[in-house]
Prior knowledge:
- The chain is mainly alpha-helical and 113 residues long.
- It has one domain (3-108): Rossmann fold (3-Layer(aba) Sandwich).
- Helices cover 46% and strands 9% of the residues.
- It has four helices and two strands, in the order βαβααα.
- β1, α1 and β2 form a beta-alpha-beta unit.
- The radius of gyration is 15 Å and the shape is globular.
- The two termini are 12 Å apart.
Amino acid sequence: MRVAGVDRDRDPLEALAASAREQGKADGLLTIQTDLTNDSAAEEIIKATRDRFGRIDVLVNNAGIGPGAIRPDSWQRPLKFHASNPFSIPSPVYARQSAVPSLDQLNSSPTGC
């Protein structure tokens, strides 16, 4: 299995990479540090994933900000995230559109794999 893990913070990505190394699965992991409030984030994620793995078979949109992300020094971040994030309400459509060539390639292969 090959997985691209995305987070705006480096520490969770490093923990994920360490876990993959411990399990001997580091070759199947791509970590991408980016802030989804950036307009180009979705395209950068899709490009990096395609460049590393050649295609995208499954896309899971699971971006969000919970109460734990609201801190005195960054209380405006959730407001900005939901106001400008391409992964917010229209995000599944936007990310899917960016990944369509890889997903369609999978669907047109003789084995479906």
